[in-house]
Amino acid sequence: MSTSESRATSRRPRPKRPPTSLLVLVLLVALAGAGGALLRLVVGELIPEQGMKFPWTTLAINLSGSGLLGLLIGAARARTSTPDWVVPTFGTGLLASYTTFSAVILAAMPSMPGSAYDGLAAVTYVSPGAMEMLTYLFISVLGSTAAAAAGLTISRALFGQIGAESADLGVSSEGHHGS
């Protein structure tokens, strides 16, 4: 077999895998979700927020998880051979339970005077002011969005982009806008 024939043979599309059953997918997402929750617990124990005026641990978890989610989505989109269970398992399961917006809100609530969360501030960390928490919320939303975008950009640089057209931007790989 010549070199050109072996290249042509290696470029043949792989046979399509059968879709993952719903039961298997649910089990994979549940297991990965438990793993993400445990990972978040471990990070929280290693870097406790008690005594902090700003919830740095929650912010670091959400920023890192958003970046990893961007990497995952970008890599899965660039690699057509990615199994259909990968993104739900690691995106919805692992990373969604590792990063939670509810933790951001819980961190912000003690700063609201007269709320039901007044006792929480004494237990979790030094109660910040309302302005600090608004800043924290702004940084969390903007930073997590930027981290996800950075993850997508890095994965595109590492793995390339599938097809001639970008599905999300309508821009071809040559930079021309699609019709």
Largest sheet: none
Question: Helicity level, as a percent range?
Answer: 55-70%
Element-by-element helix/strand order: HHHHHHH
Number of helices: 7
Return the average pLDDT rounded to an integer: 79
Beta-strand percentage range: under 5%
Q: Based on DSSP secondary structure assignment, what is the total number of beta strands? A: 0
Low-confidence stretches: 163-179
- What is the C-alpha radius of gyration, as a whole number of Å? 21 Å
Shape: globular
Ends: how far apart?
A: 43 Å
Helix and strand composition category: mainly alpha
Structure, described:
- By secondary structure, the chain is an all-alpha fold.
- It contains seven helices and no strands.
- The chain has helices spanning 3-10, 22-46, 56-78, 86-98, 101-108, 118-124, 130-159.
- It is globular.
- Residues 163-179 have low confidence and may be disordered.
Please give the structural blueprint:
Layout: H1 3-10, H2 22-46, H3 56-78, H4 86-98, H5 101-108, H6 118-124, H7 130-159
Helix pairs in contact: 2-4, 3-4, 3-7, 5-7
How would you briefly describe this protein structure?
It contains 7 helices and no strands. It has helices at residues 3-10, 22-46, 56-78, 86-98, 101-108, 118-124, 130-159. The two termini are 43 Å apart.
Q: What keyword list fits this structure?
A:
single chain, 179 residues, mainly alpha, 7 helices, 64% helix, 0% strand, disordered C terminus
